[in-house]
Amino acid sequence: MSAITVRTRLWPVRLRSTPAVATAAAVVLACYLLVGLVGPLLIPYDPVATSVADRLLPIGAVRQDGTLALLGTDGAGRDMLGQLVHGARTSIVIGVSVVATCLAVGLALGTLAGYLAGWTDVAISRLIDVLMAFPGILLAIVIAGLFDQGMLVVVLALSVAGWVAFARLARGLTLSLRVRPWVDAARLIGVPTPVVIVRHIIPFVIGPVTALATTEFAGAVLSEAGLSFLGLGLPSSTVSWGQVIANGKDYLDTAWWISALPGLALTGLVVSTGLLGDHLTQRLGSSR
Amino acid sequence: MTKYALRTAATGVLIIFGAATLVFFIMRLAPGDQAIVLLGPDATAAEVADARARLGLDQPLPVQYWHYLGQLVTLDFGESYRFGQPALDLVLSRLPASVELALAATVVAMLGVVFGALAGAYRGRWIDRGISGLALTLYSMPPFWIGIMLILVMALQLRLLPSAGVGTPAHIVLPALTLAAPFTALLTRITRSSVAETMAEPHVRRAYAKGLSTREVVTGHVVRNAATPVVTVGALHISTLLGGAVIVESVFSWPGLGSLLVTAVSNRDYSIVQAAVLLIAAIVVCCNVAADLIAARLDPRVRLGGAS
C-alpha cells in the first residue's frame, strides 16, 4: 500500500481557527506571562529613580554610566525596558483578578437565575439589562475616579460591569440545561439545589465560560490601560502601560518610543489572547 | 408593532432608572465629603455642617435617594461647584461636539459592514483571512494609543492634520478615525459572521443553483437577511462607542461630553458627573430602542417572535 503523502505547507495559510495559530497565540501568551511573573525579578526598576542626564535616550543608546538602555529611556531618564516588564506584570495581575472576580460572580448569579427562574431570574436579568446597556468603561471611570487610587479599586471598578457577560452566558446555558433528563433525575431523588447546580449544571457551563474569559481578559487589560491613561487608574508608584503611553504623549515629537512601545506590547498581548479566545470559542461551544 | 415598541420603550425607562440608582450609590459610597469638596479644605466645621444640611447629606440614605429621584424627574441636577452653572446646561452645551464626533465615527465605521460582508461572502478565502486578521488586530489596539500614533504620524511627522482642538473640518479627522477604529473592527466581525451564517442557508444554495453569481447572491439574497443581527448587535455596542469617546475626546482635547466627564471626575464635581452619566445612559437607551425598532421593521421574525 502506497504511503499517503501529506503535503505540509511551510506557511500557515489558514490564518484563523487553526490549531497552529492558536498554538502560536498560546506560546506568545505564555511569553507574556513569563515576562510578567519572572521579568520584574530579573530587571529591577524604580519608578521614582530619575536621571536627568539619561533623559529621552533612543532605543539601543548607552547611558552615562555605560550601561545599555535597550529600549531607550523616558522623559525622566527611566528605563523603558523596565517599565515594559513591570507594566506586563500589572496588566496580567489586573486582567486575571478582574476575570476571576467576574467569572465567580457571573457564574453564580447566572446559573442561579437560569436554574431558579421566577423572581430571582427577573431581578438578575433586569440587573444584567441595565449593566449591559451602560458603557462599562464609563462606570469604571466614575468609580476609579471617585474612590482612592489603588489596585483593589481598579479591579472592582472593572468588575462592576464585567460580570454581566458571564452571567448572561451562564444563564442562557442553564436555561436549556435545567430541563435535561439528568437534572430532572437529580432533582427527583432529592439532591439539594446547590449540589444540583454545582455537580450537574456548572460542568456543562464551564467550557463556554472559559472561552469567554479570554475575551474578557483582553477587555480588562485594555480598560485598565485606558483608566491609567486618563490618570484615574493605579497610583503612579505602580507602572502601567496606559500610564507610560500618557507620559510619552508630551514627548511625541522627540521620543516616539515612549508611547509607541507600551502600545505595541499591549496590542501583542490582546491579539494573542483574542486568537486563543476565538479558537477556544470554536472548540468549547457557543458564546455571545 | 405598537405593542412591541411600547415594551421596548418600557425597558429603556427601566435601564435609565437603574443607571440613576447605580450612580447615586456610587457617589454616596465614594470616600470624601461633598460638602468639603464644595467649600474647600479651609472650611470650618460649622460651615461644613451647614452645607451638609443644605445638600441634604445629613438625612438618612433612603430619604436622600427619594429626593434624588425627585430631582431627576424634574431634570434638576444641581449646580457645578466649579463653574457655578447648572450642571445640565453645561453637559448639554458639550453634547453637540460629542454627537458630531460620534456620527463621524459611525460613518467611518460603516466600512466595517462592507469589509465584513466581503469576508463573510468569501469565507475561508484569502480575502476573508486578510480582513479578519486586520479586524482582530484593530480591535486589540487600545483606542487612545491608536489616537496617539495617528497624532505622531499624521500631525507631527507628515504635518497633514491638526493634532488637537476644534475649528476646521480637518480637526475632526483624527478623533473620528480613532474612535471608529475598534467599532469598525467590531462591525466587521459581526457582519462577517452574520453573512457567513446566512450564506449557509438553503435559499442561498438555491440562488446559486439558479446560476447567479456570488455578487448577485449576496446583494439579492443575503444582505437583508444578514442585516438584522448587525443592526441589533451593532446598536448594543453604541455604548462601547460612547464609552470609547470618553477616552478619545481626552486624547484630542475634543470639547465633548467625555472630556467634560473626565475632568469632572478628577475634580469630584458630582453634579456634572451625575448629569453626564445619565445623559449618556439616555442616549444609549434611545439608540438601542431605535435599533430594536429598525430590526423589527427589517425582520418580521423579530416583532412576531414574542418575548425574548
Describe this entry's structure for a reader:
The complex is a heterodimer of chains A (about 290) and B (about 300). Chain A has helices spanning about 20-40, 80-115, 120-135, 135-145, 150-175, 180-190, 195-230, 240-250, 255-285, and strands at about 60, 70. By secondary structure, chain A is an all-alpha fold. A two-stranded antiparallel ribbon of chain A has the order 1-2. In chain A, a hairpin with a 5-residue loop joins strand 1 and strand 2 (about 70). The longest helix of chain A has about 35 residues, at about 80-115. In chain A, about 50% of the residues are buried. Residues about 1-15 of chain A have low confidence and may be disordered. Chain B folds into two domains: about 1-75, no CATH class; about 95-305, Orthogonal Bundle (MetI-like fold). Chain B has helices at about 1-30, 35-40, 45-55, 60-75, 85-110, 110-120, 125-140, 145-155, 175-200, 200-210, 215-235, 240-250, 255-265, 270-300, 300-305. In chain B, helix 5 packs parallel to helix 14 (about 270-300), helix 6 packs parallel to helix 9 and helix 8 crosses helix 12. Chain B is mainly alpha-helical and about 300 residues long. Chain B has 15 helices and no strands. Chain B is about 80% helix and about 0% strand.
